[in-house]
Specification:
homodimer, alpha+beta, Jelly Rolls, 22% helix, Phytyl_CoA_dOase-like (chains A, B), 2-oxoglutarate-dependent dioxygenase activity (chains A, B), L-proline 4-hydroxylase (chains A, B), iron ion binding (chains A, B)
């Protein structure tokens, strides 16, 4: 699939664009079954909520499960990302953030790129985030909230540094914007949360300020987020790199797959 | 003001009705100044968030501050409530729930009446809740979420009993519906959260199931909630009643005041 000029302009101006009904319900079912299989195996790639049990995030399923291995090459995800980046891409990071029904927790207001810059020596904000709705996203189950156009502000520097966190997962909380900063930003950049049925695809900039609230509804909000990075911009770690499930090591240019990922 | 037949039907069928732009911005400013004055005085009527400092609720400001004393007689609040109850009314309870910017906390899913029944020996669900938006209510600042039509289910009994909590404020958490119950209810009763500019008035049934999420936005969501009760249905406490700021003792029929509450 190809983004229209209007969709490209939205991405450039707003920092995000939503492509509704990109995957079928049947395809999403296949992905959710694969996700459940992958979540069953404990390990450092599985991050839990504060209760220590409920899955919050799982990383790099595409390195373990054939369905996800094929998904990251899907023309419907890789295609638009290549169009935006105008370059060959590889998977820098893949995760599923599962915001559980009844109490899935907040994500602090943050930008993505600064974390990868500090933790992984990523030199430019050239990534493209591609999020796939595995559940219907509504106003009730903790949708991602963007500050429209805030990606154009560039990197908002923090006092904290992820350079000290080389070993693992970094929660955005450590890179959170302060209430004072955010209260200022919303005067210029309105809050907006793209919503839609499962199967929708949301492209967003690694520089856009975003966060989300809790999920008090009886409906989970599982969000698969792929971060593609240009092969030419692959980072060179300073010292020991973070684990491979957080920082993709395979920089081979991904080839677009026009087949169905659920027909292996 | 008088509710239309359509508005009355909404209240009966859905369990709520929203009256937009009922108070002016200037009037809301007056109320917020009065609220700030009243919140400055500590005491058992002031309930804080888990941090022990931030105001979560304040009760019975109408018994202390002339602006609120007059507000509860306002034709724009008391009028529609009388129309629904078709009876003389008094104030059973008045509170302001302040859901602060950046972290105002959740309210568990609950019904109101069962708490008053158990704690105060209220014999019938004849109350009318009248909520006044002191701030713009948006999808981002933790709006009240209703299960449409759930008031028609009557009282959903709990194992817990508020009879043991005679002394003070009862958080809805103690009367919360379980995830299993709620997951069942939403199949028949869709979630809906009325939103609008400050100055709007939201009438809702004491039997409707409702809750709300956190406020992750930079905008507070202060909600004034008046609960009127028919004079003929005033409860007779069993044993020591809860404090007067939680259970109104003055059962004198309220007379409608058509003047401006902010011109004292």
């Amino acid at each position: 699939m190809t983004l229209t000029e209007e969709q490209l302009a939205s991405y450039r101006n707003d920092g995000f664009v939503l492509l509704e009904n990109t995957f079928s319900g049947e395809e999403i079912e296949t992905l959710c079954l694969a996700l459940a299989e992958d979540q069953r195996v404990p390990g450092p790639r599985l991050i839990t909520e504060n209760d220590g049990v409920t899955p919050r995030s799982i990383y790099a399923s595409h390195t373990r499960h054939p369905v996800f291995e094929r998904l990251v090459r899907s023309e419907r995800l890789l295609g638009p990302a290549r169009q935006i980046a105008d370059d060959d891409l590889y998977v820098h990071q893949m995760k599923v953030n599962s915001k559980q029904a009844f109490g899935g927790e907040e994500w602090a207001w943050h930008q993505d790129y600064i974390v990868w810059r500090d933790a992984d020596n990523m030199r430019a904000a050239s990534q493209v985030n591609v999020a796939l709705f595995l559940d219907d996203v509504t106003e009730f189950n903790g949708p991602v909230i963007f500050l429209r156009g805030s990606h154009r502000l560039g990197t908002l520097e923090r006092a904290a540094s992820a350079r000290d966190h080389g070993a693992g997962h970094i929660d955005p909380h450590e890179y959170a914007l302060t209430p004072v900063e955010l209260a200022g930003l919303v005067k210029q950049h309105e809050m907006v949360s793209p919503k839609g049925a499962r199967g929708g695809v949301l492209l967003f900039s690694p520089q856009i300020v975003h966060g989300s609230g809790t999920n008090v509804s009886p409906f989970a909000r599982r969000l698969l987020i792929l971060t593609y990075n240009p092969v030419s911009a692959a980072p060179t770690p300073v010292g020991a790199p973070r684990p491979e499930h957080l920082v993709g090591r395979d920089h081979t240019p991904l080839q677009i797959d026009r087949g169905r990922f659920d027909r292996l």
